[in-house]
Amino acid sequence: MDYATLKSIHVGSAVLSIAGFSARGVLMLRGSPHLQARFVRVAPHVVDTVLLASAIALAWLSGQYPIAQAWLTAKVVALLAYITLGTIALRHGSTLKVRAIAFFGALGAALYIVCVALARNPAGPLALLA
After folding, report:
1. pLDDT by residue (tens digit) across 104-124?
2. Using an 8 Å Cβ cutoff, are 119 and 107 in contact?
């Protein structure tokens, strides 16, 4: 598979992943029982697996790896924050207030990841302003 196709898969799955997380967050904030639907529980794992696999393949093909590239390291660290906050938001938050704060924090982490990817700079949104 060529780089451009792989990048399109990665970007598309990132969009689907963030959109899906946003939709699940809205369901959580509304207290919707749809959050427990099988599709809503399974689809994110499929999308995120494609996202991760395409990220690894892109790193392999381009020869760019976290730690060697500061912007990729920033994306990985932000991804860990996104996963942690997302887990608190959708599963482990003790109150709706904690879940809501974690949800918006996770969305902020996702926005940072996107900005870092676009700028290829760990300054993220600040780099896009320059």
Report:
1. 999 999 999 999 999 999 998
2. no
